[in-house]
Specification:
53% of the residues are buried. The chain is of the alpha/beta class. It is built from 13 helices and twelve strands. The radius of gyration is 20 Å and the shape is globular. Helix content is 43%, strand content 16%. It binds fructose -6-phosphate.
Length: 366
Amino acid sequence: EKAGYDHFMLKEIHEQATSVHDTFAGKLSELDGSVNLEELNISDEEIRNIDRIEIIACGTSWNAGLLGKYFFENFAGIHTDVDIASEFRYGNPIMRKNVISIAITQSGETADTLAAVKSCKAYGCSSIAITNVVGSSITRVVDSVLYTRAGPEIGVAATKTFTAQLIVLYLLSIRFARARGTINTNEAKDLLIELKRIPGKIQKILNRKAEIRECAEIFAEERDYFFVGRNVNYPVALEGALKLKEISYIHAEGFAGGELKHGPLALLDEGTPVVAIATKGHVYDKILSNIKEVKAREARVIAVAEKGDTEIEKYVDHVLRIPPTHEMLAPILSSVVLQLLAYYTALARDCSIDKPKNLAKSVTVE
Ligand code: F6R
């Protein structure tokens, strides 16, 4: 059942080349730049009338939602808010008819997410769920269900369901963008061609996991870890920190690079390794400045950077490589690296990887 792997988590990390592919297979045509989501019960007219997207989720699914915001705002030009379900349901959200809610929940059973989505319906908003489990509770309360095709996930730490959620959000944002005319055929084609290359690039990372293991072992006994990123790499930092803390029990926090000097720098010294997600993009120089900032406090830096980026080596202690890709897709590849980093750290610390203490796979109570 673990197919030769020591843990379900490692098996599920390895399944991502396939699960990512299965999630987009049959849904796109790179010939005309179209995305076909049959399960979506919204007309083009309704898509054009969307005023705002309200994403609701918990934990890792919330981190996926934060990335969704970049996709929807960049590609489709739709203002997007991302709320934690347990906050949303007890808040006083301003919801109107042309707001569309998107619930992201791997299990489809998270109590807070279900309750939050039900409250959106009461406002008359159209609702979409992104889930991995066919027939789960969430599927019975929304107007449209978009499935991730990741297959069953046994490890408590979400891995392949997270990357599959990113694929669905990416496809949905391109679908919206096409209906609204915010990207043209050629731009859509390029985005879809690049998407199709992702499974092969994930496989390349998996083939080089020994390097990630080596790096994890160097820092496995540390007490605190920082993860920093900017723009699309900010949610990646949050997710990297969440994975590390939940399975290795190392205190880890994710920050937006620009926030470091507003407080977190006070905690930094040579005993706090900093993972900087430094893939190429319009904020690359900005993350380099952050790296210099933390190096000045003696912190050791592990960068996640693209193959071929030789500049980064001048500033950091370790580099974990991903194959180059579109700026918006790099988070998928960087996340696979950080999943492996968390896994090998927990392994070195002899932790109960598939069933971390105090955590459950599906949180059906609030
Ligand atoms: C972290 C993790 C949790 C879940 C969260 C939401 O690895 O698995 O943070 O992401 O409990 O679960 P779902 O997606 O089932 O609503």
